[in-house]
Amino acid sequence: MKNTTSATTPVISVRGLRKDFPGPSGGVLPVLDDVTFDLYEGQVVALLGKSGSGKSTLLRHVAGLLAPSGGTVHYRGKPVTGPHPGTAMLFQSFALMPWLTVQQNVELGLQARGVHAVERRGRALRAIDMVGLDGFENAYPKELSGGMRQRVGFARALVVEPDVLLMDEPFSALDVLTAQTLRNELLELLAHPDTPTRTVLLVTHSIEEAVQLADRVLVLDTRPGRIKADLRVALPQPRNRRDPGFQALVEDAYEALTGRRAAPAADPGQDPLRAAEPLPAATVEALTGLLEVLDTRGGAVDLAALADALAYEVDDLMPVVEAAQLLGYAKVAGNRLHLTVTGRGFARADILPRKHLFAAAALANVPLIATIRTLLLASGSGRLREPYLIGRLGGHASERAAHRQLATAVTWGRYAELYEYDADDRVLLLPAEHRRNAA
Amino acid sequence: MTFRRFPAGGAIRAARLRPVDLLILCGVLVLLYLVIRVGATADRPFDPGNPPAVSTDPRHLPYYAARSVLRMFAGLVPAVLFTFVFGTWAARSRRAAKVIVPAIDILQSVPVLTFLSITVTGFVALFPHSTLGLECASVFAVFTALVWNMALAFYQSLTTQPRELDEAARLMGLTRWQRFWKLDVPSGMIAQVWNGMISFGAAWFALSASETITVNHRDNALPGMGSYVAQALADGEGARVALAVAVMIAMVVSVNFLFWRPVTAWAERFRTEDCEIAEQPRSRVLELLRRSTLPGRLGRALRPAGERLDRAMRVLGTGGGRLRAAGDEARRKRGDLVFSVLYALGVAAIGWQAVSYVLAHVPLPEIGHDALLALITYGRVLLLVAFSTVVWVPIGVWIGMHPRVNRIAQPIVQVLASFPSNFVFPLAVIVLGASGISLNWGCVVLMALGAQWYVLFNVIAGASAIPGDLREAAADLGLRGRLRWTKLILPAVFPSYVTGALTASGGAWNASIQAEIVTYGSTTLTAVGIGAYIQQATADGDFARNFLGAVLMSVYVVVINRLFWRRLYRFAVQRCAL
Q1: Domains along the sequence of chain A with CATH
Q2: By the CB < 8 Å criterion, does B172 face chain A?
Q3: Lower CB count within 10 Å: N or C terminus of chain A?
Q4: Predicted ipTM?
Q5: Which of A21, A84, A91, A99 has the most B C-beta neighbours within 10 Å, making it the best mutation to test the interface with B?
Q6: Which fold has domain B17-319?
Q7: What's the confidence (pLDDT) of residue B452?
Q8: Which residues of chain B carry a pLDDT beneath 50?
Q9: Residue A39 — φ and ψ, nearest 5°?
């Protein structure tokens, strides 16, 4: 049934794709901007990016689940205007119907296409067999482990013989060993002569996963998402993680991912809150932990090695690294993270001095925290309403993003004892002793 | 295409009938026979001047009980259909949602009994020479007691469907029919079943009231439990009333045992695992059915028909298919505008009609007086909630924190909550008459007879859900007495208490219509209040006043819900949810 057009026509072709989501107060929030790429027959392409880079949004455009705000998606030369039978998807949460058995779940896609009951049954049983789940046909998903559920996901996707397999972080809900097993089995399935599917688009935030599985890694930038690197992986399968070529690619990917764009020149007339870079959502504990590890390892470490040692994915590690950079505690050079002098001081300080150091660093480097503190000191009552700050922040971020940023600023400022927060009334307050002085 | 059949293991195993199969087969046949026998008597000639007499001979009691149960289930079926159609419609169409959701939301807080007389008259007019009209009105009362909660719950479960399941369904290209049965109904099943079961208590109340309703000085007695009790009371036969109450309790218990418990236990398979509950509901009846081969046989026999239906329903098309192009946006906005204007005009026209109708029949000062009456009834509702809180919160906490007591108490409380308390209202007349208390105060007790249990069983549920860790931590810290109550117990049960108190006040409003005028034998006691006003207007056949009373009461309920209960609930969930 497979359509064998010449190898030069791409299976999926994305041109100038733009996606805006409605922001607060009628504005728009660009999530994807001018994304262009082609996916050719037989390729495995990984979309790699931090959270918020719009990689899952991009995948949903290819699937025909979302309508673009601008630009086009084509499948074999035809514009995509809705879900189409050329693709099937694997989900992070598996997305199996909990009330259907394994077999009924696998049959569902065939039923949707009107395949007759007898043929449906045969094809579903073959697919279940192929992913190694015979004997589990009548089990319900809740009886299965996470790895087995994702195998059902494979069977459900492959039974409809799609041209392109779309995968949305399919292994990130699994433990490390299970994920590794399933990755290897995916490669075997794709190489198997009975599998009609050869082309894969994989969304991941794990660099190693991308390099292990993909022929090509597209690195997405954050807010708005656009492709900022296109890495070819020419290593033969099976790939060895300890292989120097593999390691070099992982480091390249790290560099592409952490590389910063030149910051846009600040407009002098602009609100300092809006010009500021968004606050990374990192906790003070994680930041402290990172700096201590960095200090015990001699003050400099490879990002890839660090992630490996901490068993962190990029998504978990990047906000902490960004927070350390923002506060002037660490610097990224190439793919190495270096501890600064202030960073070392912080890492070695005791609990109370640490708070004072943190307060100084936050006031000097985080415009949002500095502004809140200034506003509080300037106000007669020492109180500041949260909705007011959200309104001022809301200009360049979505309402949710504004809330998230303010939540980080509140936690950091509370830790530094720069201000307090009353969740009932949603106000920020100067610490009690300041208020007494003011009164 | 091949048609070779694989002999499946299940087919061979299922070849022999088991003893349990015969048992169930007999049960089904008896049930069918009864339904046909009893159902056939619904269409009797009816002469409005000479309504059918209800005999209080205990021999007729089983027949009356069967009639009442049949009406309950006859109301349940259209409630489920309505839920499916309107819940789905509201969830799939933005514009339909704007009309349907607020309407259902208001209707679910409006006391069912307020509109009973209007519906009775309408249905009687539909079937002028048959009891079928009265039957329909009675079934309709059950329907309205059940449907709004169920429809709202179904709508909410559709709009909170897990996003990835929705995407999977769209990507597979499920037809509308397939999506409805494979995703929408299963994911809403638990909410549906529980809401149906809880509303069933209110439905018993509505049923017994509708069996005996007096419209325009005419008794419209239908053979059933409600009318049996009413007749026995009118004749002053206390022993027969007691017998009927016992039969009623037996009926509530057996409907729970034979229907709701198996259904809730079966619905557990539709639970998505992110909200696992501690104690699985179990049912002996369901276990019996699972041991039987009959459900399996029936399923296999019906499967080819299901396949054919699945094919036939492809004509409904595929939902969620095409994406909107960017250019459609402006046209959609224009359409929305037109729709909103038409909607507003429609609502305004109906409102104008209603206002001018009422004004034509009721003088303006009387409307002000009626608002005052509603305030008095509201005072009673408040008193009742306060009373239930003081009495039942401590008891509920005690029961909930002692698992062994809980196991015994919970089923009893559930029966008390679903027992139609208006059965025993007239008995209270005797007590009140003897003690000389005015019904103005006494009817608070009558209203409480049915409504207070909601507070109790919600508090029990809340208290039994306090995590063991928290209780141990509190004991470890030496929290005792006042501190333990204010810092641990009260905050922990607060969200469930609010749910219970809200339901109780709804039940109390509903009960006020029956409780503010009570008759036993030749004694009739009347209290001052909007409930008495509505009942009087119903008996007089005064539609304008009946309508006015119903609207006033509904406005009170809706406004108080919005201003007070919803806010309290939001606060409770935000602050005290465990």
Answers
A1: 12-86+162-257 (3.40.50.300), 273-438 (3.90.241.10)
A2: yes
A3: N
A4: 0.74
A5: A99
A6: MetI-like fold (1.10.3720)
A7: 86
A8: 1-14, 275-276
A9: -120, 120
